[in-house]
Amino acid sequence: MSTRSALTDDVHKSIQNTLGRNVKVSLKCMVCMETKPEKTENRVLAFSSCRLFILTAKVPTKVEETFHYMDLQAVESRNQNQVSENILQVLVKKLSVI
Questions:
Q1: Model-level pTM?
Q2: Class of 4-69 per CATH?
Q3: Per-residue pLDDT reduced to its tens digit, 36-92
């Protein structure tokens, strides 16, 4: 799973089953999420028309976080492949695009 296109058919089907058929996902992207300093885990970002879902990259897929786009207060990029999201000034996650 070293590239964005590395999402397997099993993961695609698991995401569709987890989110339901009514949720239309326009973009799915594999990322490395920094859980602790010097420790990262693979996650999938799924973008729908009004929500962002952070899902596990394993089968069965589980929704870890979900955000409405209006809840995002800031998205910043300090490095070329790193994004930090500040959601309601409570949740701070560092994501690296694979």
A1: 0.76
A2: mainly beta
A3: 788 888 999 999 999 999 999 999 999 998 888 888 777 777 777 777 765 544 444
**SS in 3 state form for the chain?**
CCCHHHCCHHHHHHHHHHHCCCCCEEEEEEEEEEEECCEEEEEEEEEECCEEEEEECCCCCCEEEEEEHHHEEEEECCCCCEEEEEECCCEEEEEEEC
Q: To which residue do tokens 């300090």 refer?
A: 78
Domain boundary assignment for the chain? 4-69
